[in-house]
Amino acid sequence: MLLKAELRDLLGKKVKSLRNENQIPAAAYASGEESTNIVVNERDLVSAIKEVGHSSLFDLEIKGKPARKALFKELQYDYMKNKIIHASIFLVDMKKPITTTIPVKIVGLSMAVKNNLGLLVNPMSVVSVTCLPDKLPNAIEVDVSKFDDVGASTTLKDLKLPEGVAIASGNSLNNIVAAIVTPQKAIEEEVKPVEGEEGAEAGAEGATGEGEAKGEGEAKEAGKKEEAEKK
User: Fold this and answer.
1) Residue 206's CB: how many other CB atoms inside 10 A?
2) Domains of the chain
3) What does the pLDDT look like over 163-195, one tens digit per residue?
């Protein structure tokens, strides 16, 4: 997937004029590099996000520069208009490990669910992993076909990860990814915050504002964080 972009000079509230022309301000950054202010076509950006999400590499080509492998790190939305207002894009070094979130894909049919013994809950919809960019999986599957009764579960330590992929440090391996619970327990789980799932809806906070200063500031902070993780 190739996403084309151009350098931009407009900053702050002035970027509103770009959005009025269906152009979305963005920031591209990499470890050890200054973030670059860019602008991308809204239609192209939406198409790229639909195709690769947050967990797959794509090629970012900034006009006048060679294309580089990249990942979407944060997206800010105007939920009233149902539109993206800013994107933070991480430029990947293919020779260095990266840490990012991968969606969890539930597969199989639980007999406990089929027989109305309990409900399937999925408290972790994403999992944070560390690996080389070319080892990054599109999703991590959790097979629930052997979930035959209430209490059956899969934790992070139970996941079958591809070779070269590891759960990112800082996550408890006892965190439950999927489980069969009683209906009352399922209701309780819905209102309980889940450790390790922060960032699954990256950029949702503060999205109703212009988002520019926040987005670019977070892009720089994220760049510093990525650099620190690799030392």
Assistant:
1) 14
2) 2-93+204-223 (2.40.240.10), 98-181 (2.170.120.20)
3) 999 999 989 999 999 999 998 655 555 555 555
